[in-house]
Amino acid sequence: MTDLFETDYLVVGAGTAGMAFTDALLTHGDASVTLVDRRHAPGGHWLDAYPFVRLHQPSAFYGVDSVPLGRNAIDRAGLNAGFYDQASADELCSYFAHVMQEHFLPTGRVRFCPCSDYVGGEGDRHRFVSRLTGTTQEVRVRRKLVDTTYLEGRIPATSSPPFKVDEGVPCVPASDLPRLAVGARSFVVIGAGKTALDTCVWLLTNGVPASAMRWVKPRESWWLNRRFHQPHTMLPDFYVGVGLQMQAMAEASSIDDLFLRLEADGFLLRVDTSVMPTMQRGAITSEAELALLRQIQDVVRLGHVRHVGHSRMLLEHGEVATPRDALHVHCAAAGLATQPLRPIFESDRVTVQPTVWGFASLQFGLLGAAEALIGNDDEKNRLCRPIRYWDRPTDYLSAYLAMLASERARASQPVLAEWARRSRLNPLSLLGDHRDDPRVVQTRARLRETGPVAVENVSKLLAAHFSA
Q1: How far apart are CA 372 and CA 239, in angstroms?
Q2: Fewer CB under 10 Å: which end of the chain, C or N?
Q3: pLDDT exceeds 80 at position 47
Q4: Tens of pLDDT, residues 105-140
Q5: Beta strands in 22-63 (DSSP E)
Q6: Confidence of residue 252 (pLDDT cuts 50, 70, 90)
Q7: Which of 168, 203, 209, 167 lies closest to 331, judged by CA?
Q8: Is the pLDDT score of 156 beyond 90?
Q9: What is the DSSP letter of 392?
Q10: % residues pLDDT > 70 (the chain)
Q11: What's the pLDDT score for residue 361?
């Protein structure tokens, strides 16, 4: 055990959540902060991610509030042509290292302890252990522990496949694909989420023919259209997307009808239009990427994979033969945790959970701002109610209703309303620059007309769904 030191806040996790929260504490107060992370640098899961990953949203909406991310430029080539830039994994790791080295540490109020595991505490005394030396460090926390790991998910790069693989069957996570020493004659991509989508797109754009690919999809997913999630000059279309959601929520006769209306408007996308999706995790893609994915004709829909053998694959609802020379690409993981929701703000801790549909950096910065600017924990909890991470279409609707209720409460709280108005992490903070755009004028009128009806109708649709 080394000597005891003191800090105002002990933040467990230096990923996006911990960094955005800390940034708000530093900007809006005089607190000292110690960040502890098991990884060797700040950046969280981006340090482990597959190397061809990119943000599925524009860089402008991500990171910490005080330090812009990206070029704020429209890509002129590639699958993102015509849209604002999306940071790569390398750019994100470099960005968070820059934030730590050039913005956090020079304040003299931040201590960063990488390669360290938080092991718990009692009262105001907490401990973490160095992964390098095994030394236990004790710290007295004057204000609060900030736990960003409560709902931490699992990713394929750092998780074993959630199915049995016979010895000798080639099976790698997506992160290993760029490092293959010997090419494969065919690929079997297992998973239906963003990792699987990115993997299929990467293989197709790197010369693998669609005829050499099989996609094993336990579920079909709804995807958000990137066209409606752009900043700066394209912000009016972002606002149009908000209006389209509210109109569909107001007019839909069922949950399926609501999603089909949003698909007809182009707001939502699905790869296979013959299959009704049962997943909606809020990931964003483009019509150009979907056009590529639709080239893959060999799609297996027999539920989750249970066992991959040398010649057969056993799934939840059947089995299929697999070529002996196929490389299986594991893109499946448990995903986001499903712990019970708990109050975010307590007297001795902050348990980071989502409060906003989508836009991770916005909600984590918001929690840091609330902690720094509002003194009463009950008031913070009233303004920042946790919502469950979304997985099914109904989760999207429940989360959206909860977000609208919290946003109404925050709009009447001057301090947080002003923070949201100024924060670069808020996608609509610069909407005033486009107030006279006809799309903005029309959408504003649409929201006034449909807003109250949408909330009432979606509540009824959800009640009918869960009582059926």
Answers
A1: 30
A2: C
A3: yes
A4: 999 999 999 999 999 999 999 999 999 999 999 999
A5: 33-36
A6: very high
A7: 203
A8: no
A9: S
A10: 98
A11: 95
pLDDT of res. 335: 59
Q: Go through the chain and tell me how many residues it has.
A: 468
Q: How far apart are the first and last CA of the chain?
A: 58
**pLDDT tens for each residue of 312-357:** 999 999 999 998 889 999 998 765 667 899 999 999 999 999 998 8
Residues 6 or more apart whose Cβ sits within 8 Å of residue 206: none
Single out the residue of 97, 136, 90 nearest to residue 117, CA to CA. 136
Average pLDDT of the residues of the chain: 94
Global confidence as pTM: 0.95
CB 41 within 8 A of CB 97: yes
If 0-12 CB within 10 Å is exposed, 13-18 middle and 19+ buried, where does residue 319 land?
middle
> Higher-confidence residue: 323 or 266?
266
Give the up-direction half-sphere exposure of residue 258: CA atoms within 13 A in the CB hemisphere. Answer: 24
Distance CA 197, CA 221 (A): 10
**All domains in the chain, ordered by first residue:** 5-153+337-387 (3.50.50.60), 156-222+285-330 (3.50.50.60)
* DSSP H helices in 34-153: 89-98
Nearest to 89 by CA among 38, 44, 156: 44
For residue 62, count other CB atoms closer than 10 A to its CB.
23
- Contact status, residue 394 vs residue 255, Cβ threshold 8 Å: yes
H helices then E strands: how many in the chain? 11, 19
Q: Which of 439, 54, 75 is nearest to 285 (CA)?
A: 54
